[in-house]
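DM from R.C. (forwarded with permission)

"hey, sorry to bug you on a friday — could you get me a structure for this? deadline for the figure draft is monday and I only need the backbone to look sensible"
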Amino acid sequence: MGIDILSKAYAAALPPFFERSLGLFCFLVTMLSMATVGMVVPLSAEFTRTLGMSSGQFGVALSLFSVPSALLSFVVGYLCDRIGGRRLFFGGAILAVAADLLLLQVHSAIALKGTLFLAGIGFAAIVVSSPALITANLEGARRTRGLSLWSTYAPVGVAVGLLIAAPFAGQPYWQMTIYVHGALIVLVTAVAGWAFRQRNASPFVRSTADFRAMAALVRHGALLRLAIALAIPSAISYGTSLLAPSYITAVTHVSIASAAVLVAVAKIMVALCGGIFAGWLLARRVSAWHMFAALAVLGSIGQLALFYPGSGLAISLAGLAAWLFAYAGISALCFVLLPTLFTRTGEMGAANGLVSQLVSCASFTAPILYFGDFRWTVFPLLCAIGVGIALLILPRRAGH
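My reply, with the result:
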């Protein structure tokens, strides 16, 4: 009888646990998949030395991680709607683990490129299916909080990857970085799989539409405008993240290693706070447009403080924190708006894929702009103009 009571209590407690933790599971798996980029960058010296690669060849190999998201996200989204988000989510996690195992075995530049491309396919599957799963299984404030937390995966993921690699980079046991990263993915995915299996979560209504019908999504005005409104700040954030450590080093004369660690810690703490705070406000029905406008102003001021040459280390880091907080809030806001602007549940995967693909394509322009030979004034101006355009494009309601 006691066992029966415990079983009933367990069964009753599981749905709330699942609903409270689904956003966290999706965030952790997506973030750890994204951490592959941050993990590999500090190991560039080891890979170039052991594989006989130049730094340029290593850069090309690293860029292949982003190719599947930039070229295939919409197709992956269509696949998500056809086979179900849960299968795609765990399939992507398996590919991420497989890529880590292959990273331990690479003996040529071609093998490294293929491995990072494989990791990119896994990431594309995870990043498209995660918001679809959250949208399908959560409602109301829990959905808002789940999407807000999940939306911070990019800055947090790169930063976590850098921190995972920091103790091992340049050491004889540098491969421990990959073991730790892979173990974390396995652990989080296993717990998430247990929760999904116990809850029997729905992957959402599967679509029976053919690909041509799904391709008509590009003519959905509100969805396309939302994707562009997110893509512009995402490109600015990516460029800022690439440039910030070296720029802070040049202006304040701290070491590049110290600057990289400071930027990584700031990303994790501030991005999480920004996303969670935005979700808290949106759950209380604060106007999304007014919130976007306030975050755009905060982010522009932050960029000015970051890139002004007269700023000291404290002001530069405060400016970076302000921008990271603003971008995390903007990203959370856009992903929370998505299921309210696009209500065709059976095509939610394709909708997420379209947004992800536009964001990835826009981010390709960031290195060109931010590593160009420009005066410092260009970067705050670029930010102000970019977020201003995004604010004007942002739809206020479905179909507008």
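R.C.: lifesaver. Residues 1-14, 201-205 have pLDDT under 50 and may be disordered.
me: no worries. The radius of gyration is 21 Å.
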